[in-house]
Hints:
single chain; 573 residues; alpha/beta; six-stranded mixed β-sheet; 23 helices; 20 strands; globular
Amino acid sequence: MIQIKGLGFVHPGHIPALQDLNLEIGPGERLAIIGANGSGKTTLARCLNGLHQPQAGQVLVDGLSTADPHALFAIRQRVGMVFQNPDDQFISTQVETEIAFGLENVGLPPDQMRQRVDQALSDFQLEAYRRHPPHHLSGGEKQRVAIAAAVALRPRYLVLDEPTALLDPQSQRQVSALLACLRDQFGITTIHITQLPAEAAQTERVLVMHQGRLVGDAPPAAIFGDTRLLKEVGLEAPFASALILALAARTEQSLPPALNLEELADMLATHRLKTPAAAAVEPETPIAAAKIALHKLSHAYDPNLPTRRTVLEALDLDIPAGGLLALLGISGSGKTTLAQHLNGLLKPQAGKVLLDDRDIWAHPNDLVAVRRRVGLVFQFPELQLFEETLELDVAFGPRNLGVAADLLERQVDRALELVDLPRARFGKRPPLSLSGGEKRRAALAGVLAMDPEVLVLDEPTAGLDPHSTRHLIELFRQFQREGKTLVLIAHDMDLVAELATHVAVLGQGRLQLCGPARQILTHPDFTRLSGLEAPSTVQLMQALAARGLAVPAGVLRFSEAVDFLAAALSPDG
Length: 573
């Protein structure tokens, strides 16, 4: 059992993270920890295996105190940890040796070690990358390696900090199923920190953190049915629960609860739905001239080694001016590699990248200007944060461009306001002291201060709480209204459904699908052709159709589903 008694922790700069926290976690439990960015989730996770020492109270793991330096080795054998950024825990040059490293340190016999490594590679679909360097993998593949290495140790407790934030939906489901199996097969307690309500809903117990305190501790149905609590802490219910709440408010009907799409579809199928003549959907966005065009773009990692891996192969793609192109694909499909070509961070091994019909590599000395015009927010924001304070970090780019002092100050203020990190509160804080979600917004502010024409965002909402996500959605819509071009890499299909004007799906180094967002995302073969899940609204319409209900074509967004179902449930039709 893990016992937390009166736990308190304050970060440097007198920033409170945990306040008088009391909690017990029993053996074999499967629980989730949710809360807004900066609520103390990651700090709590680091206290569970002694990475942070309590400044007040105590943490006991099977009776061992994390404050006792002689107990830390035994505690860390019991409590495994998977960090938000998998690069933080990689130490080996090959995937299989990375998984074996911890097993060697605990003295596991070689035959058992080989069996566990092989099992982990199989469970997480990593056999093909056995001898690949972990740092050459995609973000999602790296996360799978980090989880596999932790699971191979068979800890009594496994703490996972946003482990699926960078995984595609199919991989998310696989990880969730494996976590359930770990509990059932090995009795491992899983403590899953997540911003995804649907993941939290799959556990048996949900803890809600707010401003360093525990404000909720109950089964998922109770937590996600408490609209007052969710509103107070800035969280949202899973899609199914949120849709029921919206329908109940619109129709004034009392509807049974549901936590997932199958339960929701079954419940709706019991009602006599009336189908409107046609669903009200937005018209398709006309295809504009290309702001960026890729011609026969190719790239391979380790091109002259046995571990050669072709990521992009003779790829052609137009990114329309003033639109938002969602770049989709399963983990490892080449999305991030493509993004790094758009502003010259990677040079094409073959092919061209054109910005306003000009080859960005025609004059390499002009790449500074290209990178000012095409801003890139990395998958891991820590890679972009390096100054002593947040305001200095945001000012770095425009200052290097020679922006005058008075204008510089205004640009920094505006960029921080845009990402909801006001300078008065956050400006003097060290960037690396921020929470994971705050770091992501801080990295975006550093790019926005450059006022780019094109904004390339690699998983911008991964690890963000609902309030921050909604804020960014409005921000991206504002950029579109201003005529900026956006490229969004995301595994959140619901986010893509809300924002994208166009969609391109990568697979095996080539385009598998490309076209207007509604046409692609509602295509009946989208999942088969892309390897991805359709947006939740599309899945619901398909589930209703499979139950013999008449549904209109083209329903894509949450609001459209509410409009259709509210009318279909209405006694007046």
